[in-house]
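Proteins fold reproducibly. Consider a sample protein:
=====
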Amino acid sequence: MKTVLRFDTGNSRVLPTELKNDDVRFSDSFAEYFIERFSEPDDVVFDPFAGFGTTLFAAEKLGRHSLGVEFLPERVEYIKRNLKDKAAILCGSSLELDRFELPQIGFSLTSPPYMQRKNHPEYPFAGYMITGQGYGDYLRDIAEIYRQLKSKLNPEAYVVIEVSNLRIDGVFTPLAWDIAASVDRVLMFEQEIVLEWRNDYSPAYGFGYDHSYALVFRNN
């Protein structure tokens, strides 16, 4: 597989006004490329941080069974309104995947909520609504999420995590590299792919707006 890929930044679905300020979705073309590359028709494609449903919509379009977990109820309702299979989106925390009755999963694709290593009091895995956890907790928890997911993955299933490094207020966070090291404790890290983004990228991404990384893992 190529180590540098280029995608446009467009999404076919326009978010409702009340959700637009949080729009940091990866593009439809990115999701469709990786779903076609790493899954087969009728596979279950899973997103543990479903966000606004890009992975799930792309999976349905490509003849896969979509499935996702999203913490924020308003996002769950948006996804549910637009999915054919309304039961494909679950509201809850991916830190509690063991509590969900998930089917065997053929491929997982996501972009997790980001956290910088300093000056970031709101915790991403609680919808940025609580404080008290730090960057070390974040890295521990993302490994725990994929530990729970591992038992639901097909033996040779792949997992792709799209993520950027961060620079905010002069503080650099090697988020992509730290997530790679954390998840590698439970899944086999195979490679990173540089993603070059064409067109206008969301200013919400800040530093590194023109690129991110696809971290590719395999179950066994």
Notes: The chain has one domain: 4-218. The chain is about 25% helix and 25% strand. Helices lie at 28-38, 54-61, 73-82, 135-150, 175-183. The two ends are 18 Å apart (CA to CA).
